[in-house]
């Protein structure tokens, strides 16, 4: 089993709470009294919709492939989980950008000459230095602690948009059994060519007895990117967006108090 019983309990507990947390921050941003109309639009029609989408994606990933699943899942379940994970990646990225635009528009962060920031300069990633410097020192430190997460997110988003979309391997073969797996595959092919369908099916079944399922997602096997377990990752991604949104709401409140 990929996870221990304690890990499964923790994953299921965290997944069961995402909808409530999403509703809390959605309402917080929808009912906030924004002074900038565009910031209000990003909050109500951008971020609020996306955070609910994230919560639903987490729930569906856990429903179609539960973390306590041992047997190899059906192909349809794997494809469904891929759809939800890919949808989640784009909307995690979208949430982050929506939050950055809300902050910049509502607080008036601008270039040194007073002109508006270029769209490429608006974000929360490490290269968005002017936006990051406009936050409190405490929140700047928190954003810095998320740098590796931002790097991971950018890598997977770029792969999804331009390269190899993240996918879930349908099953895995232990490297120590790889030669046996290939040998059985060759024998099965020969049996099929000879028209011996019974032997072909027996060899395929024997071959699949060597397979096991590991709940990982990957986007390339040749770029040195390690597959990651997707159950804890979707939880971590949701929780990071949730924490960022709550902290930015606090920053907005402090900004309003100062002004």
Q: Please, could you describe this protein's structure?
A:
- The strands form 2 sheets. Strands 1-2 form a two-stranded antiparallel ribbon. A two-stranded antiparallel ribbon has the order 3-4.
- It has 2 domains: 5-169 and 216-258; 172-212.
- The chain has 10 helices and 4 strands.
- The protein is elongated, with a radius of gyration of 23 Å.
- With 259 residues, it is mainly alpha-helical.
Features:
single chain; 259 residues; mainly alpha; two-stranded antiparallel ribbon; 10 helices; 4 strands; 67% helix; elongated
Oligomer description: single chain
Which sheet architecture does the biggest sheet show?
2 strands, antiparallel
Number of helices: 10
Helical percent range? 55-70%
Radius of gyration: 23 Å
- Nearest-integer average pLDDT: 89
Order of helices and strands: HHHHHHHEHHEEEH
Tally of DSSP β-strands: 4
The secondary structure category is mainly alpha
- Strand coverage percent: under 5%
Q: State the low-pLDDT regions, or none.
A: none
Instruction: Count up the domains.
Output: 2
Report how far apart the termini are. 55 Å
> Main sheet: which strands, in order across?
1-2
Quick one: overall form? elongated
Short description:
With 259 residues, the protein is mainly alpha-helical. The chain has helices at residues 5-16, 18-30, 37-64, 75-107, 129-133, 137-145, 147-162, 178-193, 197-208, 230-258; strands at 172-173, 211-212, 216-217, 228-229.
Give a topology summary:
Elements: H1 5-16, H2 18-30, H3 37-64, H4 75-107, H5 129-133, H6 137-145, H7 147-162, E1 172-173, H8 178-193, H9 197-208, E2 211-212, E3 216-217, E4 228-229, H10 230-258
Helix pairs in contact: 2-3, 2-10, 3-4, 3-10, 4-7, 4-10, 8-9
């Amino acid at each position: 089993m990929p996870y221990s019983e304690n890990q499964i309990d923790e994953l299921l507990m965290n997944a069961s709470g995402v909808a409530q947390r999403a509703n809390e921050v959605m309402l917080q941003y929808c009912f906030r009294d924004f002074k900038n109309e565009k910031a209000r639009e990003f909050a109500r029609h951008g971020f609020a919709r996306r955070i609910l989408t994230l919560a639903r994606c987490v729930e569906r990933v856990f429903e179609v492939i539960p973390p306590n699943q041992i047997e190899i899942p059906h192909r349809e379940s794997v494809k469904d989980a891929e759809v939800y994970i890919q949808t989640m990646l784009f909307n995690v990225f979208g949430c982050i950008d929506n939050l950055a635009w809300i902050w910049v528009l509502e607080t008036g962060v601008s270039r040194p000459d007073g002109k508006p920031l270029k769209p490429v300069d608006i974000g929360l990633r490490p290269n968005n230095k002017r936006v990051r410097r406009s936050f409190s020192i405490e929140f700047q430190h928190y954003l810095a602690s998320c740098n590796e997460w931002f790097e991971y997110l950018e890598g997977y988003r770029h792969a999804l948009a331009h390269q190899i979309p993240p996918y879930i391997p349908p099953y895995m073969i232990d490297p120590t059994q790889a030669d046996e797996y290939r040998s059985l595959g060759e024998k099965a092919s020969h049996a099929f060519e000879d028209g011996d369908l019974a032997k072909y099916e027996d060899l395929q079944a024997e071959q699949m007895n060597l397979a096991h399922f590991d709940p990982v997602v990957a986007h390339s096997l040749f770029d040195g990117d390690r597959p990651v377990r997707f159950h804890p990752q979707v939880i971590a991604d949701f929780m990071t967006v949730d924490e960022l949104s709550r902290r930015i709401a606090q920053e907005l409140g402090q900004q309003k108090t100062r002004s």
